[in-house]
Amino acid sequence: MNDYPPPPPLTDFSMESDRLASIGQRAIAQLLDGLIIGIPLFIVTYSFGGDITDTEDSNLLWLTLLWLGVSLFYNTAMIATSGATLGKRIMKLRVVNRTDGSPVNWTYAAVRALVPTLAGVVPVIGFALNIAVYVRAFFHPFRQGLHDAAAGTIVVRR
Fold first, then answer.
1. Which domain holds residue 44?
2. Nearest-angstrom CA–CA distance, 68 and 54
3. Which residues contact residue 137 at a Cβ distance below 8 angstroms, ignoring those fewer than 6 apart?
4. Does residue 44 fall inside a structural domain?
5. Does the residue 67 lie in any domain?
6. Which of 6, 30, 67, 89 has the fewest CB atoms within 10 Å, i.e. is most exposed?
């Protein structure tokens, strides 16, 4: 799904009480999700003897794949089934289709989760690309990051 034509005004949605989520609300939700995923994964990783700080560790690839896989599954499943990750629920946000405010299906939830993940794993410049995915929301009238544009979604307050 591309970024054109632009979505209709939010007042056309059947959900009159919903408004676009602020960048700050989205950032806090992302931080909460990082903690919700990261703390248990860190405990599991540590309990199996994995050292995520040792770049010479032969298990580093498998640990990275585990973390990426859990993150992708968490984000895709939560958005597809309930419209929000736990962090977004805490912040009273949800992800909806940008054209009509309907729930996001599994395909678009997966696309939305894949874009920042794939950007982040590019060697050397992955961190910068990952940031670029989210920075776009600062300049877009509907606060869509690249992942939202790719999936045709917006994030709204409940």
1. 12-157
2. 18
3. 23, 26, 143, 144, 145, 148
4. yes
5. yes
6. 6
